[in-house]
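Look over both lines:
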Amino acid sequence: MTQRAAHTWLFLLLIPLLAGAQTSRRTPIVAVVEKVSPAVVNISAESTVREADPFFGLFGPGQRRQAQSLGSGLIVDRNGVVVTNAHVIEGASRITVTLLDGREIEADLLGADRDADLAVLKVKATGLPAVPLGTSSDLMIGETVVAIGNPFGLSNTLTTGVLSAVGRTVPSESGERLFTDFLQTDAPINPGNSGGPLVNIEGTVVGINTAIISGASGIGFAIPADRARRIVDDLLRFGELRPLWTGARLLSVSPELAQRAGLPVRRGALVVKVYPDSPATKAGLQENDVLVAVNGHPIVAREDVSTALYTAGVGNPVTLDVRRGERTLTVTLRTVPPPQGLGLRFLEESVGLDVTVSRGALAIQRVIGGTLAARRGLRAGDVILGANGQEVSSTEELGREVLRGLDRGGLLLAVQRGRYVYNLDFPL
């Protein structure tokens, strides 16, 4: 055998080995990245920030400066629908989406819900690579997950890990919100990953990553796909997450409250009021019931119930396990849209304010004696500028924020009197 023939023979022997090596390198994670990455985008949000005036507060005069935030997003529809986190685009005056191929396209905000930390954008382009939201109901603790995003503006960076837990309840960085039903993973989620997809080993989007939690080194959180899909549908149809009505006022049960009130359990959601002719009444709920599980999952706080209801949507059943004294029973609750004017009615009944639009502003028309508003010193003629950190200019906007406050247990109002603005918190 000649030397050239020997080399040819050796090369032919190596071909299967080389092919096998290349095949072994093409792991399931490589396949996931190839499938999903073209639909992952970089999001740049420019905003004009007004710094709070030391004397007049957030709504007074103050310095203005330009700010920019970076995050990630996922194209979920070929016609240019992009899902991201609400905190990524909050307050933005200009939003730019950068595709994997380098194209930069300006985006319009279709809707956002800061309580769910989700936003929906629309870019003027068609035929885009898209990956729809999958399902998160069949997730298994310990399965491999991949987080894809654009940390620090670096396009299509991925981190891998395992799913550590589901149904996590964690506070926001500011502490003003409590997020429930989060997925937890040890795949690092840093600010640039925020808004990008969390994907399982089959390439199914099981969550939307969020980096809204502070002090979470080595721990990542994501909004479950099932919940995200329900919220995105509302944002696409209405531009907002439509409020729901159950007719039950809930209070989170803590060990201290359980001991003080003699409750049968140390965790759950206490029913403090049931309104007549409401879904809660039809379900058979009563005051002083303690809700201990929703759809088979333990309830740690009232927010767990709200999350399950909003995930299910209007008219869809939610199963509640209830402790009533020594008895345990199961009821089915179906939500309905809130009756017209419900938010303003709660503002009057629970806070003591009657509000009207006067000269283009939301003016307090009447303060009911003996109420929370009266005890805080509010009076007719004061002007409401904001609610729950959002500027409001109509009774409809104010009513929606009251209903949001009802879900969270409190309402924050920014009230102006003369040159001064006061931030007042009212329990609901």
Notes: The first strand starts at residue 40 and ends at 50.
